[in-house]
Write a structure and sequence with these properties.
single chain, alpha/beta, Rossmann fold, DNA polymerase, domain 1, 2 domains, seven-stranded mixed sheet, 15 helices
Length: about 350
């Protein structure tokens, strides 16, 4: 099924398959954005499916409510940052769940909105906030950070080799107030275009990540997500740059391992137990056809994992992870208890 608007959700079929969407399931879209993935989830989870959608951008939340209005009370959309995922779920009695999706990065709507400061193609204030409730803007960073801190931020979050040169030029010419001012400055600092990518791309990425605390929030939400998944629930993450993908890959590797002791340790002392099982050892990328139709999908990377029962959780009570409920009598799929007990006892 194809979504009903011009918004093109990235790797839609791969996402639905990775989430293993089922009728009567309960799902969370932590970055509902244009609502494309959410609409497909509701279509595939019918009848009885439920969805909690979250977005820090109030405009995105409003647009998603309009797009999914026909779903009625089956969809709840919250305008908040996904860093508060556990709190949101508790407040709305939405746990445990069958699947959680994180589609990271900017939506096409945000990039094409010339007033938000995300793109250097439009003249706009140096804002870059996902939510107007956030205090720090890109202008605060550009005009307030020291040269050394600016250089480090642009290098670490943008991977920009000319970070020191750019930071020096910013300090010399500030205050800077608009996106086009900053873009011209960066282009001049690095000596103009040297390829298909605009010279300011990495600097803008670095500032956006810093303004919205994207990496810190990602690490936080991943930890919360695992605790909210029911047994055999799926966590699916689509990232768009190496910093995000590295965090996701490292987290999934850790949570799918029974031992996380350093290689030199002779005896395991970490007492860590795997809570996830990797669904794809190799990262999933868009097809050539998708990239042709939607060039913005070219950098997307999808990773997925499934919640498993740890020894400690099984001893505590397996029923806590295998719930039964729902107005329509929807039943959480349960592994045969004796079979699962034997499996866990052998681990």
């Amino acid at each position: 099924m194809m979504p009903s608007s011009n918004h093109i959700p990235v790797m839609l079929n791969e996402t639905i398959q990775a989430l293993s969407v089922q009728p009567g399931g309960r799902y969370i879209d932590c970055t509902i954005g244009g609502g494309g993935h959410a609409e497909a989830i509701m279509q595939h989870s019918s009848p009885g499916g439920q969805l909690l959608g979250i977005d820090a951008d109030p405009d995105a939340a409003t647009a998603a409510r309009t797009r999914l209005k026909a779903c009625g009370s089956s969809v709840l959309i919250v305008n908040d940052n996904f860093a508060n995922l556990e709190k949101i779920c508790i407040e709305n009695d939405f746990k445990p769940v069958h699947g959680i999706l994180l589609d990271l990065g900017l939506s096409s709507r945000q990039l094409d909105d010339g007033s938000r400061g995300f793109s250097f193609q439009y003249e706009a204030p140096l804002d870059m906030r996902f939510s107007p409730q956030q205090k720090i803007t890109a202008a605060d960073i550009v005009n307030g950070y020291s040269e050394e801190d600016l250089a480090q931020l642009i290098y670490e979050y943008g991977g920009e080799g000319y970070s020191r040169r750019i930071a020096r030029r910013i300090v010399e010419q500030r205050p800077l107030r608009t996106t086009t001012e900053l873009a011209r400055l960066v282009e001049g600092a690095v000596g103009g275009r040297k390829g298909k990518i605009h010279p300011a791309t990495k600097t803008f990425q670095a500032l956006r990540i810093a303004v919205n605390r994207e990496l810190e929030n990602l690490e936080s939400v991943l930890k919360q997500a695992v605790d909210l998944l029911g047994f055999e629930g799926r966590l699916v993450v689509i990232s768009y740059h190496s910093l995000e993908d590295r965090i996701v890959k490292r987290f999934l590797k850790r949570e799918s391992s029974d031992c996380i002791c350093p290689p030199e340790a002779m005896v395991c002392n970490c007492h860590h137990t795997a809570r996830l099982r990797l669904m794809n050892k190799k990262v999933i990328t868009p097809s050539d056809e998708e990239v042709r139709l939607n060039p913005r999908s070219r950098s997307a990377r999808l990773r997925a994992a499934e919640r498993v029962v740890t020894r400690e959780e099984w001893r505590e009570t397996a029923e806590r992870l295998c719930f039964i409920g729902g107005e329509g009598g929807e039943v959480w799929r349960q592994t045969n208890p004796m079979k699962e007990a034997r499996r866990v006892s052998l681990v």
